[in-house]
Amino acid sequence: MNRRTILHTLMAVAIAAALPSFAFAAVDVAGVKFDDTVTVGGQQLKLNGAGLRTKVIFKVYAAGLYLTDKKSTVPDVLAVPGPRRVAITMLREVSSEEFGKAFTDGLNANTGKDERNKILPQIMKFGEVFAQTPVLKKGDQLSLDWTPNDGTQCYLNGKKIGELMPDLAFYNAVLRIWLGDKPVDSSLKPALLGEK
Predict the structure, then answer these.
(1) How many folded domains does the chain comprise?
(2) Which residues of the chain register pLDDT less than 50?
(3) I need a surface site. Which of 30, 38, 42, 86 has the fewest CB within 10 A?
(4) Which residues belong to the signal peptide in this entry (predicted)?
């Protein structure tokens, strides 16, 4: 082999070795990077999908959904066992009042009255979480984690906020804000379900 052939072979090997890292690179949504995997409750979760929440023409936040296994339908997402995470990065400043109202509107649009009555104490606790934080600033990271045997825990910039909410029905009701029949953003729903 001559020197040129050896060099080409080495370059091809280097490129081939680098390809898997490109295949598993983080997903970018409006400049927000979502890792392919995260750990919740000691278990590794996969990025199911990620997308952008817009209101009128404004980018509000980027959101990613993490599950133990990738799912492409709402019933499968709601039934998946194990931990889950919704990761949100704010792309503009939003008052907690505005964010809380959007949460309530989304919950009301996608759950029946009987279901809301059953999870009302947890809805109230969740409202208190937003009362503790007057403003969500651009760049703030909000995580909503479900861990079996514990419940739902909110984190703001990695710090726990609010109390644990124990009912899976509450977490699923929150997921339906984005994934329900009347999602808060019709383009975000398919993105979270991993549709290209």
Answers:
(1) 1
(2) 3-24
(3) 42
(4) 1-25
